[in-house]
Amino acid sequence: MGTDPIKLVQGGAFLIESSTPDDIFTPEDFTQEHRMIVETTRAFVDGEIRPNADTLEHQDWDLTVRLLHKAGELGLLAADVPEEYDGLGADKVTSALISENISRGGSFALSHGAHVGIGTLPIVFFGNEYQKKHYLPKLASGEWISAYALTEPGSGSDALGAKTTAKLTADGQFYVLNGTKQFITNSAFADVFIVYAKIDGEKFSAFIVERGYDGVSTGAEEKKMGIKASSTRSLILEDVQVPVKNLLGEPGRGHVIAFNILNIGRYKLAVGCVGGMKEVIQTTVKYAKSRKQFQTEIANFPLIQQKIADMNLRCYVTESMVYRSTGEIDRRLDAMGGHPDGRTVANAIAEYALECSVNKVYGSEALDFVADEGVQIHGGYGYVQEYYVEHAYRDSRVNRIFEGTNEINRLLIPDMLLRKAFKGELPLLQVAQGLQQELLGMMPMANTTEPLGVEDHILNMARKIFLFVGGTAVQKYMQNLKDEQEILADLADIITEVYALESALLRTKKALASGQEASLKVAMVEVYSREALSRIEGHAKAILAAMEEGDTLRTQLAVLRKLTRVEPINAKTQKRQIAQAVIAAERYLV
Amino acid sequence: MNILVCLKQTFDTEERIVLENGHVKEDGVRFVINPYDEYAVEEALRIKEEHDGQVTLVSVGPTRFEEAIRTALAMGADEAVLGDDPALFGDEFTISKVLAAIISQRPYDLILAGNQAVDDGSGQVSVRLAEELGIPHISMATKVEVEGNKVTVHRDAEGDTEIVTGVLPMVITAQQGLNEPRYPSLIGIRKASKKPLTHVTVQDLKLSAEDLAGRINVLETYLPKPKEAGRVLSGELTDVVRELAEALHTTEKVV
């Protein structure tokens, strides 16, 4: 390490080197300003969104728009817009905190998120001066609402396979757009759409399309499983004349915009999942304390407590991950000094594209788990629409689908890592090769005298397991690894587990080092690290067994066993203690 | 017009009170502006917006109060004074002496405060403050109108409304229903970090040891008894009345 006070960590580097607690940003590092912004967001949710929850669920779009305007008046739409365009130019942690807390008010968060994120950011990052001046102040205030139109009926995951076309008019003044976009959030009321189309059927490009242009219309409202407070329709473009000045970025470079926006969509999605989890935990714990069976609150039953502990744990880990990534992006932006232009910001985020996908997969599955257990603890009442948790369960499901399905993201995670390695940006393969020798010898023992020494050891072992099985897979399949989707998904899961565990562990150590009361955090990491290691072991076994057999396999499994040798702890007692603290606090607790 | 607002930071009303070694545990507790003081802040801002002027927050309490002060600054107050020197802390008697000492050093036309704090609920500090400053007060305001130096206040008088007029300078305390406090906007929050917050210590104020010595000794802190299931008395009316009177005397010991 150099003498720099703050170390910039490369995306993906967590797999080959360990960080120190000071290297990462944690929720314990929120500033007073951050906390005040949380309070304002919560006040907005409690005062404006919750009282209107029913009306919003029944799709009163005028109300949605009014509430978006109100959010705009408070500045809740302006965080990511630079100050020179009437925004706040706030850090990404601020914008994440807004998203997290808006998400506690149900699926209105989708309307908000689509507007401030994928709807506004393409212009922030890739707009020219005219586009920024013309659109951003109105988007920051909520005077105009934005939507993002990438997906088509025939192209979802294969976004670049879009069929919408753009053709320059003979006088060179307009692009004429034709096509249909599918599942467009905010489409009922958006004033502005970021639309992707292929110029001359070839050059994939992005356009700013206003609702008022002739030929723009929307289809019927989709009848969705959940997130009903958000509008989802198709966007129909029939000979829409879009002024040439509304081409966003360069012709044929739309994929750069699309991929960058996806990165943001992904980590923001995970941030929203944290808000959702906290809400489910709070509601469920309160329910478990009010519901009596066999003359006692069901919160007193150990099996219910085990669920509550697991819910709190998942939320702790996700929260640690997403704010670590967000803080990392902020540090990178800070290091650039001054006001970096939009593309620079997008590049800083792209550095952590892998982490964005990791957060997306982990966060969406954590929320699904938490919502599912939330319903379970509610019993029959959890299956009834009057109860919040029933909505939460349905609303949660889509997170595994949009912003790139979790399957697509699982394929992307190792792919992005290997690209970095092959480009020489990350010495992954060198480290993996260096490990081979080490694996044949004795493994170092855990340092049991240090606090969290065993958990440190588990993390190191997890990292070695990844390098071991990942390195073996690369050696075996080389370029053909891309066809081994099952192995890629297992590798993605190991990578995700490593990032998750390290984020929670470092956060816990940072809290301990600062002298804060951290016993709950310690208990959570002790339990979680062992569970994570056994999941990692499972993925590693699956990968090895898919690649080799006989003696080779047996030798490899012997190596794996060395890497997974950890004494278990009494998770039963630990989880009871975690749950009891959460139950006493009646909310997510760290 | 110079408007001062007395402000205290309290537990969020939804927080559960936990005692540890005879003290209320503050770890991990969510703090807010005392809700009644928040009405006072809002009213001050409305009066300022209508008549022009300067809103200054005055507070005595630990440094953590800064968060509540910053919130009120983010709502739109202009500056703040915080006596966060532990030598200044004490009971209602002491706090009102300290507030008076801080306030008498600066110009003021109107002093607004919450009618009580939601934590100790004494409702004494602002009234004592008016006394210390030798100015009148009107408490429990549900509506405040200022015209020149004339003030008309609707006050909550045990459920009825009493209309009281007075002349500035004076202290007015806010009752629930006075207004709907605004949320601090993000731009307000950002500006708040640049607004002046002056810290006051015991050396800055002319106070005697006598002024600072509180009049209350806390002997014990304990939680109220958990609520038990009620009893429904039934039977002959005279028997029921006798039973009730006896229970009030001997079991509940309330009469």
> CATH homologous superfamily of the largest domain in chain B, by name?
HUPs
What is the number of beta strands of chain A? 10
Overall geometric form of chain B: globular
For the biggest β-sheet of chain B, the strand order reads 11-10-9-12-8-1-6-7-13
The fraction of residues in strands of chain B falls at 25-35%
Short description:
By secondary structure, chain A is an alpha+beta fold.
Describe the structure.
The complex is a heterodimer of chains A (590) and B (255). Chain A is of the alpha+beta class and 590 residues long. In chain A, 57% of the residues lie in helices and 10% in strands. Chain A is built from 19 helices and ten strands. Chain A has helices at residues 32-49, 53-57, 61-74, 92-102, 108-119, 121-126, 129-141, 254-290, 302-336, 342-350, 353-378, 388-397, 406-422, 428-440, 453-477, 485-513, 519-547, 550-563, 571-585; strands at 146-149, 165-168, 174-185, 192-199, 203-210, 216-218, 232-243, 247-248, 292-293, 296-297. In chain A, strand 4 and strand 5 form a beta hairpin. In chain A, helix 8 (254-290) crosses helix 10 and helix 15 packs parallel to helix 17 (519-547). The radius of gyration of chain A is 24 Å and the shape is globular. Chain B is of the alpha/beta class and 255 residues long. Chain B has two domains: 2-212, HUPs (Rossmann fold), CATH 3.40.50.620; 225-255. Chain B has helices spanning 35-51, 65-75, 92-103, 125-133, 186-192, 209-212, 237-251; strands at residues 2-6, 9-11, 19-20, 23-24, 31-33, 54-60, 79-83, 110-114, 137-147, 150-157, 160-167, 170-174, 197-199. In chain B, the strands form three sheets. A nine-stranded mixed β-sheet of chain B has the order 11-10-9-12-8-1-6-7-13, sandwiched between helices. The N and C termini of chain B lie far apart (50 Å).
Topology readout:
The complex is a heterodimer of chains A (590) and B (255).
Chain A: H1 32-49, H2 53-57, H3 61-74, H4 92-102, H5 108-119, H6 121-126, H7 129-141, E1 146-149, E2 165-168, E3 174-185, E4 192-199, E5 203-210, E6 216-218, E7 232-243, E8 247-248, H8 254-290, E9 292-293, E10 296-297, H9 302-336, H10 342-350, H11 353-378, H12 388-397, H13 406-422, H14 428-440, H15 453-477, H16 485-513, H17 519-547, H18 550-563, H19 571-585
Parallel strand pairs in A: 1-4, 2-4
Antiparallel strand pairs in A: 2-3, 3-7, 4-5, 5-8, 6-7, 9-10
Chain B: E1 2-6, E2 9-11, E3 19-20, E4 23-24, E5 31-33, H1 35-51, E6 54-60, H2 65-75, E7 79-83, H3 92-103, E8 110-114, H4 125-133, E9 137-147, E10 150-157, E11 160-167, E12 170-174, H5 186-192, E13 197-199, H6 209-212, H7 237-251
Helix pairs in contact in B: 2-5, 3-4
